[in-house]
Each structure stands twice: as structure tokens, then as C-alpha cells.
Amino acid sequence: MQDSNAVGTRQPPNADEIRAQLERIVASPEFPTVGRGAAFLTYIVEEALAGRASRLKGYSIALEIFRRDEHFSQDDPVVRIEAGRLRRAIERYYLVAGQIDPIRIDIPKGGYVPVFTWNCPASANRETPEKSPIAPPGSPAKASWWSVNALSVGALAGAVAISAFAVYWTLPRHDTTGLGQTSLMQPDEPTLLIAPFANLGDGPQAQLYTIGLTEELLTTLPRFKEIKVFGRETSKALPADVDIKDVRERLGARYLLAGGVRVAGDRMRTSVRLVDTRDGAILWSQNYDSDLRSRDLFAIQTDVANRVAASVAQPYGFIAQADVARPPPNDLGAYRCTLDFYEYRTELSADRHGTVRDCLERAVARYPTYATAWAMLSMVYLDEQRYKFNLKAGEPTPISRSLQTARRAVQMESGNMRAQQAMMTALFFNQQLSEAIHVGEQALATNPNDTELMGEFGTRIAIAGQWHRGAALLDQAIALNPGGGGFYRGTRGLASYMLGDTQNAVVQIRQADMQRFPLFHIVAAIIYAEAGMTADARREAEVFETMRPDFLPNFILEMKSRNMRAADLNRLLAGLQKAGMAVPLDDRTVAEAAQLP
Questions:
Q1: What is the 3-state secondary structure (H, E, C) of 436-467?
Q2: Is the pLDDT of residue 157 over 80?
Q3: Which 3-state string (H, E, C) describes 348-369?
Q4: Rounded CA gap, 494 and 568, in Å?
Q5: pLDDT, tens digit, for every residue of 65-118?
Q6: What is the pTM of this model?
Q7: Are 316 and 302 in contact (CB under 8 A)?
Q8: What is the fold, at CATH topology level, of the domain defined by 191-325?
Q9: So what's the architecture of 347-447 in CATH?
Q10: N or C of the chain: less Cβ packing under 10 Å?
Q11: How far apart are CA 336 and CA 327, in angstroms?
Q12: Mean pLDDT of the chain
């Protein structure tokens, strides 16, 4: 006799069963409580159960759920964006909390009508679920990396996690949006999966360290908003030797971070590698040796996690470098704009500025909730004012546009480091110094590995008078990111000059070498003049006055806009005079200088 509970012969879920499943989803702590996801899901389920599925269009949802008026048009992306977010929330729910729920509720792409199906044969009785179909009878022991035979005896916690993961990947799937796919809310950004680190040695200490290091990486790496990191539930369900093909095809992760730990006596070696899942190429690898007698395990794993994060995920790290060389296949330009922004920051030229500004404006028009692009656009708008790059006349002013877009980025994603950096910088040039420093301090405490933030914050507080601390932050940013520190080396050279270390100032300004950035040349002229390099100083002064003839007549005002103190201004004026560059000290400039703190 045929089993009436088998999928394919069982009657579809009834309305009461579907409503019970809906209540289970929206009440779960794994379902987001922010936004209108619960109201959206409840509305479309109830409409479908009431026989009004044909009414589930963007227009009706916009009116009923998002309170748009009758003038709503398809140009407003709110429904498409929230539908994409809801699909991902449902997908995550069934991966984390709903593996054995009796009913699946899905929203196929291309519409808003929900689909109701039985989750799996084993879920007919939620209280006494049957064994999940991890390894079918007769299948080889090594048929797949989620085979139950691969679990060691006694690893009960690991078995539960892998069993749940197996159920997820062996069940029939509906059309859903995975983390590796382009969504309507965000452009296709690099996706990273962290595999549990392998214990390559003996003893409980090594095993404890591998678990702790994996946890630390899962905490540290997601702070970088330029990449998307799969959650800890997904990572922990993997074996350390997960197959790269499965990572790419089943999860859609573009990069895999993996490694192992070996302990020999008092020495511990951690090996880490970053793999491109498209072809298995190792993009970066590093060994970290630690002395167990000098530091405890917690300090070691935190240090290694921070160093890995700085190498892999920071704005000029190995993931960004790989994406510059080979852009994401599903991205048509929005993510590329963010990479172009970082390349622009390394040279700071007017030509590159205009291109990047146009690209970012198109990106935010296409992805209105892309906080990183808004933050970058804020900094590009600011460069119109502070560097006089492609200045747009009229209102609002570049400073106002910069502050507005920074606030928009923070409102969308308060934890986004680029958004925090943009807010700090916009506040600084808006003469809100204490607020700017407060934002910078908080952001740096949140992510102490972000070299772009660190270098910008170091620059700001140095010019505002904290030369010693600013120099220390700039040194740290340059050490973590020597390839992207041209702008920061220039400021570091200026800090050395202000602190009386002329020798280091010359070293730093020569390594900066930003020929297309006008302010590089004025700083170089001052440093070379102080070092007695008269010919070099004269050359740099001539280049600067050709590039920015408007700067010296407005020098006091320019320094005032950068929150410079009077004592530091006098030091710079002396340097300019030594370099042969004259600042007119008429009544206006004297009055402006008198207003400096």
C-alpha cells in the first residue's frame, strides 16, 4: 500500500496548516524584525489563501503595505527591493531554524504570489522527525562531503549541524535568491565563505584554537562592507576540507578562506589561504607562527584574525585586487564603481574624479539602497570643494551634498565603515570638528582593521593638531596596506615635518609620489625646502602653482576649512616662504588668520 504521506501523493497543505507555518516563521528570532517583512509576508499569504492571488501586484502591495499613494509607479523600487529582501530572509530561515518545519512558503522570482509545499517527507510529524536523507541506502561512504559516515564518533554537535546542512541541500529547491546572485537591493559583491580551520596537530589546545580562530574570523571579516561573508551557521556546517566545487556551485561563494593549525611543543603555526572558487587558484597564503609561552590563546587568535582580515578584506586587500583583475561575471558596473573609487583615491586626479563621480551617481540611481556607493559619492562630492575637482556651480554646495549623501548612507546601513568614514569627513569639513572626531573614534573602535578608515581618521586628527596620534595611525595604516598608502604617506610626511623629523618627512613624501594630486606638490615643496633640497623645492613649487594658481591667495581660508590651528598655520607659512611661495598677507588674510584657534 502506498504511503499517503509521501511527497507527490500527499494532499497540499490546507489554510490552517499554512497559517500555522506563517506564524512560526514571523515569530522566529531568525526572521528579521526590522522593516515590514512580516507584514509583507502575512499580506501576500492571506491574499493567496483568500483566492485573491491575481491581485498580488507591485501596485497593490505598495498601497497596502508601504503606504504609497495612488500615484505609485514602477519607477519606485520599494516593492522589488523589499521582495528581494524577504526572499533572502525566508531562505535563511529555512537554512537555520526551519529545516524540519512541515511546510515551505516561498516567493518565486518574477512575481509576488507565494507557493506552499510540504518541506520533506520527514516533516509530516514535527515532534518525531524521521532520519534526514543524508546518505541513501547503498550509497558509497565517500559519495559526498556531507555523508553521515564522514562524522567521527562522539562529534554529536558537529553531526547535528552537518545533518541540518545536508537536509537543506538534498531537499527540492524552489527559485530563490542565493547569496552569490545579484539582487535588486545590492549589486553583485564578492562573497566569502570561511571554512572551519583544520586541526593538524595533537592535543586539545590546538582543537580549541581552531574553533576560536574560526569564530574570531566570522566576527572580524563581516565588518568589511565591501564583501559579503556567509554566516556562522553555514560555515560551521562545513568540513574543513570542503570541496571547492561544492562551495561555488551549491553556495555561490566566489572566495573560500581556509586553513589549519599545527602545534609542536610551545610553537603554534597557523596556515591560511584564500582560494578563488572559479578555478581553484590560491590568491593569497600566509603562515603565522606563535609562541604559546608568550601569549594566551585568546590574544593569539585575535591577532591572527585581525592580520588575516587586514590582508584579505580591507579596501585594497587581495579580494579587491582579484576583482580588479577579473570583475564579477554578474556585475554590470555598480560594484566596479567602488573598485574605481579606491583606484581614484590612490592618485587623486581631477580626470579620474569626474569619471568616478558619474559612475557612482549612476550606481545609486540603479541601487538606491546601496550604502557603500552613497558613502563613496559623499567623499567624491567633498573632493569637489576641498581639491577643486570638477566643481559644480549652484546649490546645494559640494559640502552640503557631501553631508546629505553621508547621512543617507548611515541611515541605510549604520555599521557600514565607508558610511562612517564619509560622515566623519563631511562633518570635519563642515566645521563640526568634535562631532567628526566622535564618529571617527566610534568607527575605528568598531573595525580597527579598516586601513581606509584608519588613514582618513589619522589624517583628519593630525591636521586638526593631534600630529603625534595622527602619525601613529597613519603608520599603522601604511604598515597594513603599503600598496594603497600614497595619500596617507603624503600626510605622514607633513606630520613628520610638523614634528621636526625632516629626514622621515623626505622619505615619506618620496614614497607618496602622487604627481597628479596638486596638494602633493605643495607639501613636497615645503619638506624639500626644510631639508635644504632647494632645486627640488623650487620644482615642486612651480608645479603646484601651475596646477592650483588659486590656492596661495586663499591659503588662510583653505587651512581654516581644514580646522588647522594658528600655531600650525604659522609653521606652514614659514615653510612656504622658505620654498619661495608667497602668501599675500593683506587685511583679509590677516583677519582670517586671527579667527583660527
A1: HHHHHHHHHHHCCCCHHHHHHHHHHHHHCCCH
A2: no
A3: CCHHHHHHHHHHHHHHHHHCCC
A4: 11
A5: 877 766 666 656 778 878 888 888 888 888 888 888 999 999 987 789 999 988
A6: 0.55
A7: no
A8: Rossmann fold (3.40.50)
A9: Alpha Horseshoe (1.25)
A10: N
A11: 7
A12: 78
